[in-house]
Amino acid sequence: MRFLADEMLGKMTRWLRALGVDVAYETEFEDDKILNQAKREGRLVFTRDHKLLKRLQARHIPSLFIQHDKWQDQIREFFSHFPRFRHLEGLLSRCMECNELLETVPKEKVKDKVWPYVYETQSVFSYCKHCDRFYWKATHVEKIIDRLKALVEESHGGVKTQ
What is the C-alpha to C-alpha distance for residues 73 and 125, in angstroms, rounded to an integer? Predict the structure, then answer.
C-alpha cells in the first residue's frame, strides 16, 4: 500500500518512512498536485486539511483525515487504521528525505564520501541513489529504533514479526 501526506504531516511522514512505509511527501504540495499524484500513483492521502479532504472524497480518492497533532499520536492513529504495518521489518529501509528504497553498499564505495571517523568505525552503509545520500548506524539511530519499537509494541502488546 502506498500513501501520500499533505504538508501538515511532515514529522509523521519521516517516522513512517523510518518504519519502511512508502509515503510520498513534499513541502508546499498544492492541493491539485496531491489530487493528481494520488490518482496517478494509486496512493491513499493523509491530510489534516478539511477542504482537501472534501476534494479527495468528491474525486473518490482514498483518504484518511488525521485527527491528532503530535506525530506519536498520528503514528498510533495510522496503526489503528493500518494494523498490518505494525512491525519493524522495513525499519530504516527508505530514504528519510525522498522516500526512495535504500540499497546496501560495500564499505569501499563510501571511502571518500563520509568522514574518516565514520568510515573507520562503521561497517554497514546504505545509499539513496535519488538523493545521493549515504546512511549508517550513527549514535542517534538507536534512539530512533527505540522510539519506533515502543510505538509498535504499545500499539498491539508486542512486536509483530509478520
Answer: 31
Domain spans of the chain, in order of start: 1-162
Note the pLDDT tens digit of each residue in 123-137: 999 999 999 999 998
Q: What percent of the residues of the chain are helix, what percent strand, and what percent coil, each to the nearest 5? A: 45, 15, 40
State the Cα–Cα distance between residues 128 and 100, nearest whole angstrom.
7
Residue 35: name the closest of 54, 15, 16 by CA.
54
- The HSE-up count of residue 76 (CA atoms within 13 Å, CB side) is 15
Distance of alpha carbon 103 from alpha carbon 11, whole angstroms: 23
> Do the bridges between strand 63-65 and strand 103-105 make them parallel or antiparallel, or are there none, so unpaired?
unpaired
